[in-house]
Design goal:
4 helices; leucine-rich repeat; nucleus; repeat; chaperone; histone binding
Length: 166
């Protein structure tokens, strides 16, 4: 099912402004772009677009309240600066299983001052020498990288007793 149609179904007769949580995992994006999401989703706090075939975030709408974004298992390699512009309040970002290869790709996240948790598991960047130290240095606001802090303490399980809200 394509992403636009899936978003229509997920609305369940609500207006986009009434939706705080949206999951469109495993739907298909056309041309690797975000589709069907608009600036009308102004109350959206949690968005999950896992395995939808995204290769770009350029068409991401402005989502000022979005704080949790799941983008794992897509084809993203860049355009992450779009997140800083469109989703300035992100605290949790999962980019695992994407095509992120270099520190310069994640450098675009520096302006996400509230970003606390970043997941790059199964991305090529994780094979870089001193990967974890380099990312923590580049993004000092991040507390948890791939589920662990700088001292290798595991992040508290944010799923337990949490409906995905911020």
């Amino acid at each position: 099912m394509d992403m636009k149609k899936r978003i229509g179904l997920e609305l369940r007769n609500r207006s986009p402004a009434e939706v705080a949580e949206l999951v469109v995992d495993n739907s298909r994006s056309v041309d690797g772009e975000v589709e069907g999401l608009t600036d009308e989703f102004s109350e959206l706090e949690f968005l999950s677009m896992i395995n939808v075939g995204l290769s770009s975030l350029v068409k991401m709408p402005s989502l000022p309240k979005l704080c949790r974004l799941e983008l794992s298992d897509n084809n993203l390699s860049g355009s992450l600066e779009t997140l800083s512009e469109k989703c300035p309040n992100l605290t949790y970002l999962n980019l695992s299983g994407n095509k992120i290869r270099e520190l310069s790709n994640v450098e675009a996240l520096q302006s996400l001052k509230g970003l606390q948790s970043l997941d790059l598991f199964n991305c090529e960047i994780t094979s870089l020498e001193d990967y974890r130290d380099s990312v923590f240095e580049l993004l000092p606001q991040v507390t948890y990288l791939d589920g662990f802090d700088q001292e290798d303490n595991e992040a508290p399980d944010s799923e337990a007793g949490d409906d995905g809200a911020c």
